[in-house]
Amino acid sequence: MKTSIIGYPRVGALRELKFASENYFKGTGTLEQLNQTAVELRASHWKLQQAQGIDYIPSNDFSFYDGLLDTACLFNIIPERYRELGLSPLETYFAMARGYQGEHGDVKALAMKKWFNTNYHYMTPEIEDSAAIRLAGTKLFDEFNEAKQLGITTKPVLVGPFTLLKLAKFTGSKQATDFVGAIVEGYKAVLAQLNTLGAEWVQVDEPALVTDLSPEEIALFTELHTQILAAKGGVKVLVQTYFGDVRDCYQTLQSLPFDGIGLDFVEGTQTLALVKQHGFAQGKVLFAGVVNGKNIWKNQYKKTLSLIQAISQHAAQVVLGTSCSLLHVPYTLKNETKLPESTTKYFAFAEEKLQELAELKTIASLEYSKSSPLYIENDKLFSGSRFAGDASVQARAAALTDADFTRLPAFAEREQIQKNKFNLPLLPTTTIGSFPQTADVRANRASFKKGAISEEQYKQFNFDKIAQCIAQQEEIGLDVLVHGEYERNDMVEYFGESLDGFAFTQNAWVQSYGTRCVKPPIIWGDIRRSKPMTVEYSAYAKSLTNKPVKGMLTGPVTILNWSFTREDISLKDSALQIALAIRDEVLDLEANQIDIIQIDEAALREKLPLRQSDWQSEYLSWAIPAFRLTHSGVQSDTQIHTHMCYSQFSDIIRDIDAMDADVITFEASRSDLSIIDSINACGFKTEVGPGVYDIHSPRVPSVDELKQGLGRMLDKIDPAKLWVNPDCGLKTRGEAETWASLKHLIEAAQEVRATL
Ligand code: GLN
Ligand code: ZN
Known about the structure:
Layout: E1 2-4, H1 16-26, H2 31-51, E2 58-59, H3 67-74, H4 80-83, H5 89-98, E3 100-102, E4 105-107, E5 112-114, E6 121-123, E7 126-127, H6 139-149, E8 155-159, H7 161-167, E9 169-170, H8 180-197, E10 201-205, H9 215-229, E11 236-240, H10 250-255, E12 260-264, H11 271-278, E13 285-291, H12 301-312, E14 317-322, H13 341-344, H14 350-365, H15 373-383, H16 391-398, H17 411-422, H18 439-450, H19 455-476, H20 493-498, E15 500-503, E16 510-513, E17 516-518, E18 522-528, H21 535-543, E19 550-554, H22 556-561, H23 571-591, E20 596-600, H24 615-631, E21 639-644, H25 653-657, E22 663-666, H26 674-681, E23 687-690, H27 703-714, H28 735-754
Parallel strand pairs: 1-14, 2-8, 7-9, 8-10, 10-11, 11-12, 12-13, 13-14, 19-20, 20-21, 21-22, 22-23
Antiparallel strand pairs: 3-4, 5-6, 15-18, 16-17
Helix pairs in contact: 1-2, 8-9, 16-23, 18-19, 23-24, 27-28
The protein binds glutamine (GLN) and zinc ion.
Zinc ion binds at residues 432, 602, 643, 645, 667, 728-729.
């Protein structure tokens, strides 16, 4: 049995690529230095895999920014506006990735989107009518040669034609089908060149196959690959899928002349059943994703080995691999020195997953011998209990009844009670929570973490900041104030650190996009709130003003979706535990006279299943109730807000209404307000604050522009339901533009109000 890796992380164990790239962008590092870093990283990743005896080591999984953008450039898919800049190929690439502003012109970056059901974001290729698709790049071949010089024959990786066309945006009148001929020639040229270079295998990634497919899409996939494979020559072609099962096209894959088919047995809930039902074509190699490529837990060999045995009954040649690219997990446990061994022994990051594959291969070669020391050691880890669970948390979750998920009285009655109580003007103004995290705010936190200042000094600084922030908000005339979130580094990490049950790493970075990496907390045990987390700061803010101050919390679904989750209990059970902890905080805030509380669910959509048919059953059926659990215990005159980002809510708008908040603010300034049409179409009851300006840019919107925006909203929304606010938190902005923008926002609201 052999082993294969779909892709390895590329930013470096200590984020070397991030820093080298940023230095290059800033002009503090040269292109040679950036290239040198890239060469070293690639070599070290190949050697690590070689050292673990991985048989199919990928190349071209490296990227300076994004793999789909690499594939677009490989095939000359570069919009005119970037060509016109007249830059070098790499600079053109960075212009597409990050935008360009300089002596050659001024263009924005390509749109960035979430890569399937991960927190990784890809750059959306744009195909113009004039696009001359053809093989134009050399990166794929250069990296193959680079590895070959190190004595390693790699399996080059590229995104497949179907996924490329499915994710691309067509900017003119032409469609995917108009480009079939050119795309086919491009991929054929890649195969021809790989044959010349002596490649044995090539991996063509087609993750789009795990989504719902129409018959037309399956026909397109079939047409593309039939033509490409007809000219493949000696190189073997592996079609690699991941992030789910291929229930719509399993037999199509079997019938096409691929040499290998890569299937995901971890997230693909039906993969094994498909193999059992339809068998596996003779002569083809099954690349079986059996080690989770997305989570950080050690693999349980007992389970995996019996899975491999089951697969082997249907396929003669099985290659063991991870379920997806290791891009989605951190590098190595070697750089985690603070967590005890009793914890880290349960973890496997990318490097440790290589070792797991090597061990599984060894045990399989020993006829699955349960007396192998590798097996025994692994089994020991899973036979005991990992930690002392919190029986009280489990009992509390088990005792929940329908009533715990239902807030009473119903919305309409609450809305009236709250209007009477708060007596806010029409079109009330507010912000989303955070105010600029300026250098002094970050320095204060850093000094405290280093131990350079006492906790008291640290807090006093935050109290002073809050006082200034409240005074300024009052001065410009906002209606509902916030404390500013100066104590928070990040909306999830802050709560993770305050709750029991999370583990934190020092260097477990995962690429989110380009040079941006995140360090998700790990849900280690049962989640419990042992002490209030936000009450002190919120109550202090409230004590300074007669205006309402919104308490500010992160919701259970967002905390869950931005953490590494447990595998020993369901996501639903984890969500309920977190929801109970947030519920306690909500009730504590309420008891401290904080009568408006915002519970952010910025990442509600993040784990929405890829197939719409699974949305309710596998996700929304518990995610929405988990949110309701956080606030169902408050009084009718406590107002619950929520906030959401990333603008694509139209298709889950009913579920959002079913969260039963009193007010929802969301990002809308960059989209076309079509969300408001969806809201109207479903009879949305919750009051809404669609963001009236984009906080992702330092630009200060004019009063007129804001008035026009509000006017457009009022064409569609009842003024009694409309709130006025920016589209997200202000933490990434500077002070000057923040206050200038907010003043304009208030002026615009006042002027529009006067006309109602
Ligand atoms: N309350 C958070 C803030 O203002 C919300 C952040 C977010 O939606 N991403 O920063
Ligand atoms: Zn937001």
